[in-house]
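Could you please consider the sequence and fold following this short note?
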Amino acid sequence: MHHQCAMRNSFKKTMFGARSSLRVFISSTIYSHHSRKICSFSQDHDPGSWESMEGLLRCPANFVPLSPISFLERAAKVCRDRTSLVYGSLEYNWGETHQRCLKLASAITHLGISRGDVVATLSPNVPAMYELHFAVPMAGAILCTLNSRLDAAIVSVLLEHSQAKVLFVDYQLLEIARGALDLLGKKARELPILVLIADNDCTSHIDITSVSYEYESYWLMGIMVLT
């Protein structure tokens, strides 16, 4: 009899952003559908112990391709009320993260982004960047994360090469993004839509006249998905 397996969280990964600590909680203990613990992974796990599985017929119980989308869907079901992200005073559980990413994916498609299109980001490790790693593939698009240490000239080259249709930019890097778009404009190329990732405590003095959308307002364009 094949047992249906599910993944649960047993390790914690910490990511550090430029402004504040971003902590992400991820998981991996395997349980059967009878809630009986079968096995758990550790960092010193020997990959050779899986050799005994060679020759088995692949099925959902023993072989499931990993993807950000399936991981988030599983986490939202199995660990819905468990913490998924902490950033300063901001905290989300997996259910909230799943809903936010679904709405963000919906908002991305409303801009005409379709399968195979490129969405670029110029941002440190902030919650918006975290959500985009799930939402962009949900929309069928390709995520192009630009190094936040690059100057405007290099960013413009990468935007042109990737043919990005949307650029999400952190407010700290807005001037670099504007410089890159100015350089692109001189080449008579269609410019990507600019979405600003703002910080309510630090963005009141920033000129946003060249910005198409602000992240939280843009996020609200998405359709709420009920689960």
